[in-house]
Amino acid sequence: MALFAAAAARRAASSALPLLRASRGAALLRPLAAAAARPMPFSSSSANAVKPSSDEELLRVIKSEIKFAEDCDDHDRVEEIPDSFPFKITDKKGLNDITLTRTYQGEKIEVVVSMPSLVTGDEAEDDQDEDDKEGDEDKDDDGEKPPKSTIPLTVTISKSGGPSLEFCCTAYPDEIMIDTLSVKQQPSGEEDEDLIAYEGPEFNDLDENLQRAFHKYLELRGITPMTTNFLHEYMINKDSREYLFWLTKLKDFVKQ
User: What was the pLDDT predicted at 77?
Assistant: First the structure.
């Protein structure tokens, strides 16, 4: 009987041993499982390793365009300002416009000059076939002018404490057209800012003598064909500089 009890005890101990080993093994595996489930810290090197190939292709094309712009455009050309140019030029890198300022007999004159709208001879030839050219010749005979490059100008003339005149102009080679003329009042309160002021008639609807008088008015204040022809060349060069600057910012973004 004693032998039977001893054998039973040995069998019980031997059957419990695998369970003990299994439980110890599970306890040892739990830290490993927790470590595997824990999120790995972000690595910039790993992000760069999986950079899409399309980004590399885009970067290559941008670099090629930068080189082409550097070789072909007058991005580094410095336009010599004529001695008779009456305005001070404020040209900030990265902006689409430049600002001209001067004073004239107590008036403050500010001119905002925007990028030119260019028309080249090649573009005109590409857009026309022989029939179109014949039609254009007929239009020229009727007095209609062919398209030319232009610069938009906004001229503001103000006096201390009073209203200001605002001219929106289009400058062609050797010619300045006044598109609109408006009188801007100084706002006296928040309610005035919400009101829509009367802008006056279309400039072309004014009496011809009045139109000529306003052209002379601007001419005396420095808005002349000589001024706008210089600005045309200046803005073409600025456009080249800004395009190259824009491409460089694109390249830096894609490289990140």
Answer: 73
Kindly tell me if the per-residue pLDDT of 108 is higher than 80: yes
Within 8 A by CB and 6+ apart from 136, the residues are: 128, 146
Q: Which of 180, 116, 172, 179 is nearest to 146 (CA)?
A: 172
Is the torsion defined by CA of 189, 194, 195, 197 positive or negative? positive
Q: Which phi and psi (to 5°) does residue 154 adopt?
A: -120, 115
Q: Which two tokens stand for residue 205?
A: 């609807």
Answer yes or no: is pLDDT of 19 > 50: no
Non-local CB neighbours of 152 within 8 Å, separated by 6+ positions = 113, 114, 117, 168, 169, 170, 171
Write down the pLDDT at residue 80: 87
Strands 98-104 and 107-113: antiparallel
> How far is the C-alpha of 104 from the C-alpha of 159, rounded, in Å?
10
Per residue in 195-207, pLDDT (tens digit) is 667 778 899 999 9
How far apart CA 200 and CA 206 sit, in angstroms, is: 10
> For the chain, how are helix, strand and coil distributed in percent, rounded to 5?
50, 20, 30
Q: Mind listing the domains of the chain with CATH numbers?
A: 72-253 (3.10.280.10)
Q: Tell the residue number behind the tokens 């306890």, with chain if given.
A: 27
**pTM of the entire predicted model:** 0.68
